[in-house]
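I can't quite decide. Please look over this sequence plus structure tokens:

:::
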Amino acid sequence: GVCHFDDGQDLAFAWQDNPTIEVCGTCHINVNFETGDGHAGGAQASNSGCILCHPASGAGFGQSVAGAHEVTTLETDPSGAGGDIPLTPNYTASITLSDDANADGVYEADETILVTVTASNAAAGDYTDPAGPYSNATVYVYGPRAESVPVLTPGSTTDPAYDPTTGPPDQGRSMLISAAATDAQVLTDDTGFQYQLFAIPADLEEGTYMVQARVTALADCSGLYRGNTCIDGWALTTFQVGTDVEELKVAGECTNCHTQEDWGSMYHRSYFGTDGCIACHDLSGNFANYLSNRVHAVHAACPDCDLNGPVPEWEEVTYPRNDTSCEACHNSGNESFVTLPVIWGQPCIGCHGATEGARGHMEQNGSDFD
């Protein structure tokens, strides 16, 4: 439905009603219709037989076109993991940031930001009740976009006490912002969960940064995938440091194919947008694998290509285009994936990690792997 939608176009259903070798072959590149290799129906001299075996829907000699392209998620099959917890969030959260000194939308060195998070159905007293239903509220602050790490919180890369020689940032990735926290940066009051970020250091790289918050009244998320993603009260916003020019994403929106808040995903009940993912899948080494490596390994259906792998469940993942069609995702205008292949060895190995000698070739040419 993301690509083929009905908005009154004359040919909206042509992909179902008129299957052809030319159209189907653009995705099914492992099928040779001329020789019949990879095709249960054997060789096909023309398009005339396609509809006989593959009707638009219903039964045929082969699978129907609509049936072959049906996507099953927790939303369409609630019997999967997490089916006993509502797929639609019961409430929403919002984030506001205190104004920058010049009120021009750009924060400069030595300025501080007060983060305020509210939930749509929370009463004033809920924010300040240490044992209340929303006592697990957390906030992540990280950036810049292309090379994200935790910033402006205790234990993050900008904490004066942080020592990069001792390993990844200690904490810093997620900070508890509820009234139950002992962190002096927590300023929560009846107006919402509040967190005072550290002053922006003079050497902080300019660019686009993210604040992500999660406010949950669910004491137990164990019914969800991997037991750690509650869907209620999730919110994200960005802010600019040192420049009003928004930093381009390395890849465009994942929403070209995914629904942005695809809470029904079988494999990651989360937010499909790179700004949200890099809160955990960042470059700090303190939590999850690099997003750049992980997302390429997933879409290449290559469990052995993940630097933290192998992850067998990804063998089922299909990428509905030729796997060299980089422009399908890399459409933001940021060309670094082409111009800086040495720096981006992690994503390259995500597709080529199963090729003998690929990693050695990349290392020999300067790619750095942990």
Remarks:
- DSSP finds ten helices and nine strands in the chain.
